[in-house]
Design brief:
There is one protein chain. The longest helix is centred in the first third of the chain and has 14 residues. This protein has 338 residues and is an alpha/beta fold. The protein is globular and about 70 Å long. Helix 2 links the parallel strand 1 and strand 2. 37% of the residues lie in helices and 13% in strands. The chain is built from 15 helices and twelve strands. Helix 2 runs parallel beside helix 3 and helix 5 runs parallel beside helix 13. The chain has a single domain, classed as Spore Coat Polysaccharide Biosynthesis Protein SpsA, Chain A, CATH 3.90.550. Bound molecules: guanosine-5'-diphosphate and manganese (II) ion. The site of guanosine-5'-diphosphate (GDP) has 11 residues, from helix 5.
Length: 338
């Protein structure tokens, strides 16, 4: 105990301090955090940030997911950060591990080639498991199933501005399905055959291709060639009904059946992004300028000075990734204006 503890009656009752709950409406939404036990300190930092910048006034719940049971240390260190419901789920092995029907010799050859080519995570099977899980399974987990909307958060990310509005409600009210803060080019060698398969799928299932879609953001020749632009999926706020619907279900199953998550190294970012660009209308994809966000090594800091001030942002606008040479934001702007 402290040598001279501050008396109890100096404290604001925890219920009031932790849940401003001035809000009269909430979406059916949750945070989803995939993490390893070893990610605990990073998870703590991320939750601390999102609580301080947004969630203390809303009380949205959290679902943590892991293919190994969460340690008591993990659970106690994150639970202490919020009065919100926090649930800790185990991922079933068949939603995580490399399926038996994958030809392991072919998969190994693919990994070795990527190691030789110095591709990040090129030799990692667990990274591939993670990408496949995030592409096709997280929204089917029993703890996640009861929610419609999710906000994906990773360990060790930062939220740089007060988020004075509810992004879930904004999206729900405005018929959005997918949102992002950072968009960039993918490494071509991780997805050599992905676009071919996307084109095949669109031929097989023209009924799923939306009118006024965002294909033009990803291809400048009517879908022939992919420009490698995608939304950086370590930040996502999106509608899981979209992932659970017939178009994405068929799309994921088809992609998965090709083995590309293992023979190549398809990321959930291009898979989600391409799906959003094809199966949603372009106006259903939203860029949140207001949400100052950092995932090493990139930051999105609000473009507008007023937004930056209003959010009491801690990021440097001059360091925002938006118009970096590697960013796809200028393509997005042009496409949305066009
Ligand atoms: P990067 O952002 O592409 O560099 O990949 P990360 O290493 O950040 O992984 C993406 C997300 O998946 C993070 O939330 C990680 O905590 C999580 N993750 C990555 N690999 C594993 C794994 O093997 N097990 C679990 N449970 N989570 C993982
Ligand atoms: Mn990450």
């Amino acid at each position: 105990p402290s040598p001279q503890p501050v008396p109890d009656d100096y404290y604001i009752p925890t219920g009031e301090a932790n849940s401003t709950l001035a809000v009269d409406r909430r979406a059916n939404a949750t945070f989803v955090i995939l993490a390893r036990n070893s990610d605990v300190s990073g998870a703590v930092r991320s939750v601390r940030d999102i609580e301080d910048r947004f969630n203390r006034g809303h009380g949205y719940p959290y679902v943590f997911l892991n293919e190994e049971p969460f340690s008591e240390e993990f659970k106690s260190r994150v639970s202490v950060l919020s009065g919100s419901l926090m649930e800790f789920g185990l991922i079933p092995p068949d939603h995580w591990n490399q399926p038996d029907w994958i030809d392991e010799d072919k998969a190994r050859a693919g990994r070795e080639k990527m190691v030789a080519d110095k591709i990040i995570y090129g030799g990692s099977v667990s990274y591939r498991n993670m990408c496949r899980f995030n592409s096709g399974f997280f929204f089917r987990h029993p703890l996640v199933q009861k929610y419609r909307w999710y906000w994906r958060i990773e360990p060790e990310v930062h939220f740089h501005c007060d988020i004075g509005f509810d992004p879930f409600l904004f999206m729900e009210d405005n018929n959005k399905v997918y949102s992002f803060t950072i968009t960039m080019y993918e490494f071509e060698k991780t997805i050599s055959t992905l676009w071919e398969h996307v084109r095949k799928f669109m031929k097989m299932h023209p009924e799923y291709v939306a009118e006024d879609n965002a294909m033009g953001f990803m291809s400048h020749d009517g879908g022939n060639k992919y420009n490698l632009c995608h939304f950086w999926s370590n930040f996502e706020i999106a509608d899981m009904d979209f992932w659970r619907g017939p178009a994405y279900t068929a799309f994921f199953e088809y992609l998965d059946s090709t083995g590309g998550f293992y023979y190549e190294r398809w990321g959930d970012a291009p898979v989600h992004s391409i799906a959003a660009a094809i199966f949603a209308k372009k106006d259903q994809i939203h860029f949140f300028d207001e949400i100052g966000y950092e995932h090493n090594p990139y930051i999105h800091c609000p473009q507008s000075k007023d937004t930056w001030k209003r959010g009491r942002c801690s990021c440097d606008q001059a360091k925002s990734f938006d118009y970096d040479g590697y960013s796809c934001m200028r393509h997005w702007d042009k496409f949305m204006k066009g």
